[in-house]
Design brief:
By secondary structure, the chain is of the alpha+beta class. 38% of the residues lie in helices and 27% in strands.
């Protein structure tokens, strides 16, 4: 195979994993037309169609899936070997891509990375905010963040934060205009601020527990966001009840700007964990980053 074919295969892998020519082009730091041309040229030389566009994005054909399954692990091994060789450098270096929700990025990852990164100028970190559980290997991430310790196969998990309790809150002025809910069922018919996520295929259901009772409540309201911080601002502005991490709303509870309800129903969840592939040769940059964000209690 010609050298250009290897470059095209590398581009094809990223398009197939990202399910988007645009996202792959951004990751590869190429123009979108150049990425499209490389894939079309590869298909022409191989004589088969590898990718098709659909309402769900760019999807591999049967031939594309077969090729991706065969070559993606080989390219990953090459990358790992190059990473291993880079460890011979005196100064740790490398790029690390992490997917996490905005709350994890702002409250845990960034405060620690803001101290860590100046110590290692050759380490670069890309933080991607998304409310979606993804296959981090397939999507080209080095690590992800989620609650608890549930892992996919061949993943390592490291706790990066304390246990978390979500609370139902609203503006004091909003509660003064209506009734206080006593059970999750009372939220029906009351204005709430929704969170839209990709993982759950729509609106997030608020999770409650009390004793042996477990309730996932569907709520409704005038406004929906896809991140916690906009929900917080809407709650402070009096647009309804919100379901948010306790440490995020605590300052406003202490000030009296927000009021909490249904406290007896609000569960405590295992803290956030960083998870990443169990590779033979983890890069020194990755090892240092994991140590930097590890929760010490």
């Amino acid at each position: 195979m010609l050298r250009d074919d290897y470059s095209a295969l590398f581009i094809f892998i990223h398009v197939a994993q990202q399910r988007s020519f645009t996202r792959a082009a951004a990751w590869l730091r190429m123009s979108q037309p150049a990425v499209s041309y490389a894939v079309r040229d590869l298909e022409a030389r191989l004589g088969v169609c590898l990718l098709i566009r659909s309402s769900r994005g760019v999807l591999p054909t049967k031939a594309g899936r077969r090729l991706l399954e065969r070559i993606a692990p080989e390219f990953r091994e090459i990358d790992e070997e190059i990473q291993a060789l880079s460890e011979l450098r005196a100064e740790p270096a490398g790029s690390i891509r992490i997917t996490a929700i905005d709350y994890a990025i702002r409250s845990i990852l960034w405060p620690k990375l803001a101290t860590f990164l100046p110590q290692y100028p050759q380490i670069k970190v890309e933080l991607i905010n998304e409310y979606q559980s993804v296959d981090i290997v397939a999507h080209g991430y080095d690590a992800g963040v989620r609650f608890g310790q549930e892992l996919a196969q061949d993943m390592i998990s490291v706790r990066i934060g304390p246990d978390i309790r979500n609370m139902v809150v609203c503006a004091a002025s909003f509660l003064a205009q209506g009734r206080r809910p006593e059970t999750p069922a009372d939220l029906t018919g009351l204005r709430c601020i929704n969170l839209r996520t990709s993982t759950y295929g729509g609106l997030y259901q608020w999770e409650f527990s009390k004793g042996k009772q477990r309730i996932n409540a569907r709520v409704d309201g005038a406004v929906t966001f896809n991140n916690a911080y906009d929900i917080l601002e809407a709650a402070k502005a009096g647009f309804g009840f919100a379901y948010l991490p306790e440490d995020l709303v605590r300052p406003y509870l202490l000030q009296g700007q927000l009021i909490s309800v249904l406290e007896a129903w609000c569960p405590v969840w295992p803290g956030l964990h960083l998870y990443y592939p169990n590779r033979r040769y983890p890069s020194r940059a990755m090892t240092l980053l994991v140590d930097a964000v590890r929760y010490s209690g």
